[in-house]
Design a protein that fits this description.
By secondary structure, the chain is α/β, with parallel strands linked by helices. About 35% of the residues lie in helices and about 15% in strands. Helix 3 (about 100-115) runs parallel beside helix 4. The mean pLDDT is about 90.
Length: about 325
């Protein structure tokens, strides 16, 4: 285990920020007023089966009017009592953060980057929503704000095409691979979202997704537990019994899977998330996930008991999974 991981058995975002910028950064989730091509018909209809009505931005700052500056100010006040850091990450979380006219994107990204307390921006988007004009804009912003970072977060969820099709993801794996290559060529860091527990996926399939990401230039990863939420296609199917073979993961199963994923991942992959918590009023299952502190404490204590850590199995045969 590395000494610069600040006592955790994995390379957390907290450790990365302290090592790179000298202090903890707090993330403020924003709603930029976006839509999604997987909802409006360009890539599909209805969105991914697990995606909430808020476009996975349920914890974004909710203020009216939808001003980025106002959202950031509201978000800063939420962290007012914390004394371990004074800088923030502006996280464009809801829906598809590059799916808008280029002038609008430039205005809202710039509005965030102009804030003195903002260390950089992180933009959640789809790999099929990175046209050349968006890449040109991101490159320009990198040049205009050399002391701030620009990260792109891509919703991969799984490398397995059958699962992706069932979940109505709306694009195939080569699209993700091409987007990663383009972003890497521009020295733009990427964070990849992976969902654990998708219908039909075995633990081995989840591990294959992590092995595949080892072979990409991904800077970081978010390991997200699948939540079954009210108002989603998955939630409706779950409640109606239309998926009789689908079972949500137990906390014990999830802990084991996450630990093995961490053991597989290369040691320099920054871990941006290890679970996640759905809104209490819309979460159908698994209800144990609502106690996020307990989930993380259990994970940490189990890893300590097993004397294991991120990257432990990285160099074992078969960890460089490719397609």
């Amino acid at each position: 285990m590395h000494t610069d991981w600040y006592g955790k058995p994995y390379y957390s975002l907290d450790a990365y920020c302290k090592n790179t910028y000298g202090e903890k950064y707090y993330k403020i989730a924003l709603d930029g007023g976006f839509s999604c091509p997987n909802r409006d018909g360009r890539a599909g209809r209805g969105g991914c089966i697990f995606c909430s009505a808020g476009g996975s931005g349920d914890f974004a700052v909710n203020v009216e009017p939808c001003s980025i500056s106002e959202q950031l100010e509201t978000g800063r006040r939420l962290f007012g009592s914390k004394k371990t850091g004074t800088r923030f990450i502006a996280y464009f979380q809801a829906y598809t953060g590059t799916y808008a006219p280029i002038d609008y994107l430039q205005n809202i990204y710039t509005e965030a980057l102009e804030q003195p307390e903002i260390g950089g921006i992180s933009i959640a988007t789809r790999p099929d929503c990175l046209p050349d004009e968006v890449l040109t804009l991101l490159t320009k912003l990198k040049s205009d704000y050399p002391n701030k970072f620009i990260w792109i977060e891509l919703g991969l969820q799984t490398i397995h095409e059958e699962t992706a099709a069932f979940c109505n993801r709306g694009y195939k794996l080569p699209v993700f691979k091409e987007a990663m290559e383009k972003l890497s060529s521009l020295a733009i860091k990427t964070v990849v979202h992976v969902i654990l527990g998708l219908p039909g996926e075995t633990p081995q399939m989840m591990y294959e997704t992590c092995r595949y990401l080892n072979s990409t230039p991904a800077f970081g990863i978010k390991l997200q537990l699948l939540h079954v939420l009210k108002g989603t296609a998955l939630g409706e199917s779950y409640l109606s019994g239309a998926l009789p073979d689908f079972k949500v993961l137990s906390q014990e199963e999830y802990t084991d899977i996450v630990i093995h994923c961490l053991e597989i991942l290369r040691p320099n992959m920054v871990i941006h998330r290890l679970t996640g918590d759905g809104p209490k009023n819309t979460t159908i299952a698994p209800l144990w996930s609502l106690n996020k502190r307990n989930v993380l404490n259990t994970l940490h204590s189990t890893m300590k008991q097993r004397d294991t850590y991120q990257g432990r199995s990285y160099h074992d045969a078969g960890c460089a999974y490719t397609i």
